[in-house]
Amino acid sequence: MPSTRVLVRQSPYQYHCSWFHCISCLCSISVLVTILVLAAHSIYVYPSCEDPSCWDFTTSLYRSLNYTASPCDNFYHFVCDGWKSSHGPNEFVFSELQAMVAHAAVNSLLRVGHAPSLRQTAVQKAAVMFKTCVQVFMNRVDNTDSLKSFLRSLDLLPPRPETVDVLDVVVGLALDWNVPVFLQMSVEHDTIMDGMQTLYFSRSRHLMDWFLRRSRMEGWALHNYVVTCSQIVDYQFNAEALIFFENYIMSSLGALTETAHVTHTIKIADMENHTPGILSSEWLDVINRHLPEAALLKASDTIRVTDIAYLRVVSETILDDRRRRNGQLLLYVAWFVIQFLGPFASLSLVTPSFANVKDARNYIFFRCFEELNLLMPYAFGAPFAVESVPVKARDDVLTMVLVVKNALKESFLKSKWMDNATRSIAILKLHTMRTIVAYPDMVINALDEYYAHTPDSSAVFLDSRMRAWYVTMRSRKDRLWKPRAFDYDFRLTDVNAFYQPLTNTMIIPAGIINSPFYSAKYPLSVNFGGLGHVIAHEIVHGFDDDSIREPKDGLSRDWWTMDARTQYEQRVRCLKRMYFPLGLNSYDRSGRHVRGHRRLRGSRAGPEGVPFAAPEEQRQRQPRCAAHEPLYRRPGLLCDELLQVVFESQGGRPRIFVWRAAVQRSAPEHSRFCQGVQLPPK
C-alpha cells in the first residue's frame, strides 16, 4: 500500500512533466518550420502554381485594354493603352510568361534529388551547379579563393612576369574560359561557307551591359565597389586611376553602334588592315596558341567579325597600352575578370555595386540562371520541358504545324506570279522543313551522351563553371573547319520560336507552348490564333529575302528563275515602301537598302500586325501598292477579320484568350508592344 500511495502522489508530477516535454517539442518544431519557411521563401521566390494550365492571364489582359477606345478606329490604343500606362517602355506583354517559365524551370531543377560526386547524369550536373550557385546567392559560401587562384593562373595578380601579353590574355580568356573581356569569340556555322564551323569575333555583351549598369551608379558607390573588390582579392587597385581608365575605355568602345550588327568575312592575312598596330602574323600566333592542333589556322583561312569598327578600336586600345608600357590595360583586365566572375564567387563582391542586398541577390540569381542555360541548355531545361509539355501537347503542336504548312502550300499552288520551276522547289523546301517541338528527341534518350564531355560538378560552383566551360570550349574548337552537323543549340525555356536556315529547321521551345499561346484546354481556333500565328511566322522565315537562296538542304545557291525573282523583288520593294512611314529607316522611299542592315526581315516574315499599329497621321501618308494594298486599307478587314477576339463566358464576364506581342526590337515603339492577330475562319 505505501508504494501505491507513493505512485499516486508522483503521478501528477509525471503527468505535468510529460506535458512540459510535449510543449517544448512543439515549440521547437514550430521554430524550425518557421526558419525553413523563411529560408525557402528567400530562395524560391516563384509562383505557387507551377502547372502551366493554371497560369491565368485574364487579369493582365483586362488591365491592358482601353475600353474607351474603339478597336475599329484605333486598334493599337484599344489593346495597348492600359499596358503602356502601367509598364515601362522596354517591357513586353509576355515578359510575365517568360518569368513564370524561368521560375518553373528553376523549381524543376531544384527538385532533382541528391547527386553522387562521380558519374553524374547530365541533369544532375546541371542541378548540382545551379544549387551551388544558389549557395552564393544565399551568402552561405565564399568562393573568392577559387577566384584568386584563377587570376594567379593567368598572371593577372602580382608578382606578374613582364612577358605577359595583354592580347594573349584577352584571347585566351575568351577562347578557353568563355570570359569575354573585350571580345566574344565563338565557333559557329558560317552561312557563307555552307555551314562550315568558323571562328566568330564580336563585341563583349557583358562589357556593354556593365557600361550601362555603371552609368547608373553614383561616383562614391563605384569607388567603394572597386575598393571592396580589391580588398577581397588582396590586391590594392588604385580606384581613381582604374575608374579614370575605364572612362577612357567606355568613351572608346561604348559609343560604337552603327556597325554593331554587320558581319564581315576577313582573311587572317588581312587582319592587320583592320587592327592598327597588331600584325596579321601576331593574330595568327596568338589565336593558334589556344586552338587544338587539328584546328590550327593558316594565313589563308578566314574568320567572321561582327562590328569591325569595334575590333579596330580594341586594337588601338591595346596598341596605346603597349606604347605607355605601364600595364594599365592588364590591370583593367584583372578588374574585369573579378567583376565578371564575382557573382559566382561571393555576395560581398557584388553587393557594393547595387543599392541594396536584395538587388545584388537578384543579379546573382539572374547570372546563375543565364550561365547554366547557356552552358547546358538541354540539361538545364529538360526537367521543366518534359513536365510542362506532355506527349499529347507535342502531337497537337505538330498537327498545327502540318495544317499551317498545307495552307502555305495551297498559297504556293494558287500563286499567279511564281513559275512552276520555282514553285516546285519551294514546295519541296516546305515539305522537308524539320520541326522540333518543345525539345529535341535526344533529351529523352541521349542527353547523358550529349553532355558526356562535361565534367562532374563539384561543391564549389566557380570551379565547376570554369572546368565545364574549358572542356566545352575545347569541344567546340575541335569542330573548327569541319562540315556542319545537324545540331540545335537552343534554350528550352525561351518564350520564343526560331527558324534555322542552314538546316531548314523550325524550333518551337517548350517555353512558348504555354498559355496564352497554347493550352490543351483552349479551343483549336484559340491555339491557332496564338501559337499557330507564331508557327506561320517562323515557316515564312524560310521564304523571306534572307532565306530564298537556301533550298531544302540549307546550302547557299540560287534556285529562283529570273522571272520569279523579278516578281518577288518587286513585291518586296513595295512592302519596304509601305513600312517606311513607320520609322524603319533602313530603307529609303524607293525601297533601296540604306545602312546595310536588314531591319525589316522579321516584319517581312509576318507583317500582318504592324500596319495596324501605325498612328493615324502616318496612315494618311501610307503609299498604295497595287495588289499589295496595306491590310488596314481594305474595307471591313479590321472589324470583320482582324479583331476576332475569342470570348469565353466566365462568371458573366468575357474572357479574352487571344493576345500576341511583338518582341522585335527593330520595330518602332508602338509596334513592339502588341500586334493584331488574324484568326482563321471559324
Automatic annotation (TrEMBL):
One matching Pfam family: Peptidase_M13
Keyword Membrane among UniProt keywords: yes
Region (Disordered): 598-623
Organism: Rhipicephalus microplus (Cattle tick)
One example GO MF annotation: metal ion binding
Signal peptide residues on this chain, from the entry's feature table: none
Domain annotation Peptidase M13 N-terminal: ranges: 71-440
Name of the protein described by the UniProt record: M13 family peptidase
Biological process terms in GO annotation: protein processing
Required cofactor(s): Zn(2+)
Keywords: Hydrolase, Membrane, Metal-binding, Metalloprotease, Protease, Transmembrane, Transmembrane helix, Zinc
Similarity remark: Belongs to the peptidase M13 family.
Single GO cellular component term: plasma membrane
Transmembrane domains' residue ranges: 18-40, 329-350
InterPro entries: MetalloPept_cat_dom_sf (IPR024079), Peptidase_M13 (IPR000718), Peptidase_M13_C (IPR018497), Peptidase_M13_dom_2 (IPR042089), Peptidase_M13_N (IPR008753)
Stretches assigned to the Peptidase M13 C-terminal domain: 496-579
Domain of life: Eukaryota
PROSITE patterns listed in its UniProt record: NEPRILYSIN
